[in-house]
Amino acid sequence: MTAANNTVSIEKLNNFCIEAMLKAGMSQENAQITAKVLVATDTWGTFTHGTKQLKKLLKNFRDGRMDPKAVPEITKQGQSWALYDGKRAMPMVSSVKAMETAISKAKATGIAYTVVKNSGHYGAAGYYAHMAAEADMFGLSMTNVDPCMAVPGAKEAVLGTNPIAYAAPGGKEKPVMLDIATSVVAASKIFKAADLKQPIPNNWLIDKDGLPTTDPTGYPAVGAIMPMAAHKGYGIALMIEILTGVISGSAFAKDVPCWVLEQPEPVDQSHTFIAIDINAIMPIDQFKQRMETLTGMIKETPKAEGTNEIFLPGEIEYNHKQKVLQNNQITLPKDVMDSLKGLAEDYGLESQTLFS
Amino acid sequence: MTAANNTVSIEKLNNFCIEAMLKAGMSQENAQITAKVLVATDTWGTFTHGTKQLKKLLKNFRDGRMDPKAVPEITKQGQSWALYDGKRAMPMVSSVKAMETAISKAKATGIAYTVVKNSGHYGAAGYYAHMAAEADMFGLSMTNVDPCMAVPGAKEAVLGTNPIAYAAPGGKEKPVMLDIATSVVAASKIFKAADLKQPIPNNWLIDKDGLPTTDPTGYPAVGAIMPMAAHKGYGIALMIEILTGVISGSAFAKDVPCWVLEQPEPVDQSHTFIAIDINAIMPIDQFKQRMETLTGMIKETPKAEGTNEIFLPGEIEYNHKQKVLQNNQITLPKDVMDSLKGLAEDYGLESQTLFS
User: Fold this and answer.
1) pLDDT recorded at residue A229
2) For residue range B134-187, what is the model confidence (pLDDT) as tens digits?
3) pLDDT of A39-89, one tens digit each?
4) Closest residue of B to A294, CA-based?
5) Smallest Cα–Cα separation from B204: which of B262, B134, B150, B127?
6) How far is A142 from chain B (nearest CA, A)?
7) CB-based contact B70:B88 (threshold 8 Å)
8) What residues 16-75 of chain B have any CB closer than 8 A to a CB of chain A?
9) What are the two backbone dihedrals, phi and then psi, of residue B142, each rounded to the nearest 5 degrees?
10) What pairs with residue A110 in β-bridges?
């Protein structure tokens, strides 16, 4: 694969992912759901959480850490909530179903939440929040992840970088969406720096002695990320741990296995989704008009020296997606291409047809 | 008042606040509710948001910006939500009622949210979240505030420091509680530095040209606070604005009037409360046991050099409260004493009996 052929049509990328998942034993329906999540994430330019992850996700099947045939199901529910047993199925499948359930229950009562246990890496938290926004709802999405983050005063990891995302319908059909790790940076950025052999700022990681380091190699086996905004990020990460791992009855904090390490334990992450039916409290058109006013206020704020444009949460992702859709092709970074090529090798697929 | 008599019993402080509110025209019931919120906040050591604020809150009545006789009421509701018109009543009264409604509706459906519009400064966000934890629920509390925070790339304020708080029942009856502004610091810390004539770190505020400054004077008329964790805090503050001011149909962002400035506009803030009935999804005793395990993991994490103890969110406040309850007296900082003395003067109360 050369730098010349790093662009691919959305359809080809989608079909390639589906083909790999079928080979890995997933059903056509579940492969389609999962491909949609991963490819949409790539269209946003969030390449760290898109199709690049499929190779490692399918390895979880081969290692017996996840189950390609599993069918997630609701084990307990009430009017405005449901608990899913993900049964270690592809986490995108459980998560899409769980957000769909939250949306449908919120339609009836105004707000609903769903929790998925026995799950793994669910990709971009924002995808599921965005589903709610597309259904004219406010959406929240969060997951616990394996412990790789220290808390203020600790010298080793105790919590995950527990991401959280929200989305709300915006003006002119452009939703507002925030998708963040509660750490100073997403773990993927540390992996990227390690891949590229680049040093990192000294407030990202502590080393084995609890001291700041600029060396990203060795992580996550050695060291721990720091939370964003010190005690504030710590507190929010803990909230996510409570609303996912603790409340689901599944693993939490130090007991959450890392899904990317070579280890035999089944994955054991939990995700939580909340949907609020805006239309119940305010006519959706009025809400969107008000969002238009709010986002306009922000965009039109006088700019600081050196700033050309103030971006809304999710706007850079939205702009990336628009460009991809206009061209009907997406330009993939080298690490994504390498991962897809490796995936093709894992399952005897023709990766060159993907990029031809 | 001298440094010698800066301690007061909880009962005296409570009664003094009630007396002032009765003089200001509030009902006995509403004065009691409000005093309970403000005094509890002081027992946590969160003096910036406790009884110190009563003087300014009652001035809002005298200035016609709030209404001491107003009775907040639900104007629209569904199974799992309600919209309150606060009618510019004392915000603690509307907020306590709104969280009570969220708790009661969550009991029926598993989760519920309530929104209060036409309100003012509601004090410590954490108080209302803590109400949910005391009812064996998970609680979330948030409010918009007047614009005093810039967003990345802006050179002036566009959003409030929009605080958010959560609380969850913990092990051994000790709840976990986080109460934070989404700014680098709470505005009250800047006011405190200005009061004490101390410089501030240069990442707290930008000046009138959008440049970092160490001078806290002039704020909030001049300058803007920066969000915590850059785009992350910006995104969370925006979420709070959407879930409070936008969804309530009330003022949002740049249009929220500042409640402490000398200006005639009625207050116009909105608050949102969410309660999740833990017992629906998991027996509460099991949840508390799991919380005990989680908090134990964190407390027992090996400590970084120079750290004696790792604190849980809300633990310092809890410890402060325990000490106050043991001694049945609370030691107030000078700025709180001065404010209470001023309040006594405003209403012809005997402040010396409070501290004798």
Assistant:
1) 93
2) 999 999 999 999 998 999 999 999 999 999 999 999 988 789 999 999 998 877
3) 999 999 999 999 999 999 999 999 999 999 999 999 999 999 999 999 999
4) B253
5) B150
6) 14
7) yes
8) none
9) -150, 155
10) none
Residue B218 sits at φ, ψ, to 5 deg, of 95, -30
Measured CA to CA, the distance from residue A281 to residue B272 in angstroms comes to: 13
The beta-carbon neighbor of A282 closest among B249, B252, B280 is: B249
CA distance A198 to chain B (A): 22
The ipTM of this complex is 0.96
**Using CA atoms, how far apart are residues B346 and B24, in angstroms rounded to an integer?**
10
Alpha-carbon span A87 to A68, nearest angstrom:
10
> Residue B166 — φ and ψ, nearest 5°?
-135, 160
Q: Which of the residues A77, A149, A281, A317 would you substitute to probe the B interface, choosing the one with the greatest number of B C-beta atoms within 10 Å?
A: A281
Residues 6+ apart with CB under 8 A from B154: A298, A301, A302, A303, A304, A307, A310, B210, B224
Half-sphere exposure of B180 (CA within 13 A, CB side): 24
Q: Which residues 142-181 in chain B show a CB within 8 A of chain A? A: 150-156, 158-159, 166, 168, 176, 178, 180
The DSSP secondary structure of A130-173, one letter per residue, reads HHHHHTTEEEEEEE---S-B--TTBSS--B----EEEEE--GGG
Contact A109 B232 (CB under 8 A): no
Task: Write down all domains in chain A, each with its CATH number in brackets.
Answer: 11-62+328-356 (1.10.1530.10), 76-181+229-313 (3.30.1370.60), 184-226 (3.30.60.50)
Q: Do B125 and B146 form a contact (C-beta atoms < 8 A)?
A: no
CB B277 within 8 A of CB B106: yes
